[in-house]
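Researcher: We're teaching a course module on how sequence relates to structure. For the next exercise, students receive a sequence and then see the predicted structure as tokens, so they can try to spot secondary structure elements on their own. Here is the exercise chain.
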Amino acid sequence: MKFLSSETLNSEISMLDIVTMVEDAYREEGKGRVVSSPRNQLRSEETHTFFNVLPCLLPKLGVVGVNTYTGGNKGAPLMQKVILLFSSDDGGLLAILEADWISWMRTGASSGVATKFLAKEDASRVGIFGSGRQARSQLWAVSAVRELTEALVYSPNQEHRENYASDMSEKLGIEVCAVDSADAVLEQSEIICTATTSHTPVFDGGAVAPGTHVNVIGQHYPDRREVDTKLISKSKLVVDDRERAWQEDGELLIPLAEKAIDKTSIHGSLGEVVAKVKAGREGDEITLFSSGGIASEVLAVAAGVYRVAEENGLGQEIEWNGPIELK
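Model: And here is the predicted structure for the students to work with:
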């Protein structure tokens, strides 16, 4: 059995590799060949602790496993993220993966897949709301599926957005500009990604131009949202998973409560679009992908990086004797 760390994986696998793994997972979802359940969340208000579990079985890849992450007590600065990856053939434990890097990469990759299927093929200008770690993975993933000429970034902290622009310009080899308003992003962007901690909409949805594609990934709580009802009402809505979205996404639940949309307003899941069960972009419409993270994304990436580790002798081998006979 292997133990794989983020440090080991980071140097060997590209964002395009991860986008391909996540795309394959969504294709399996769209064909109905994935067995999974939405995020199971345990929370304690007394200790401020949370523990989230996402199980999944991917028959095509021959794996079954669970993604789990926890944190919170006494204000722990980082979540602890672990994946247990088993063989679906014999039940053997294949790997334990420290999953911080996987979580970061696959979140960006899901927007990369959505952009590939929902954005205009010639879209080359991207607007980013947010300047943190997830905002970086968003731009990185979009650059893996579209030939970008320019990116704009806005966040309320000037130093943060300027540092983001400098770092990502160097990383991606494109011009990334920090701008001082949300309107400046909307005026020039054909693809928009929101990756913020805001509890309320970060821009005026009425100003989003026809033909734009929007990736929304920053919130998956019923009482919070990054985009407003105007944008939701006029967009072709695609989600990672319908059941998860109607449980968690304030992006949808708040407009639903306002009676601006109903349960039929979702065009389809991303898996259905990738598998061509539902149409992707059709003309000059606004498309919007709302993502909160699903188990198949994580398990597909875990299976993929496990194969790379096996082929290249990466990771730490751990003795695992399995069950013992009780006497």
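Model: If you want an answer key for the exercise: The two ends are 26 Å apart (CA to CA). Residues 25 and 296 are 6 Å apart (CA to CA).
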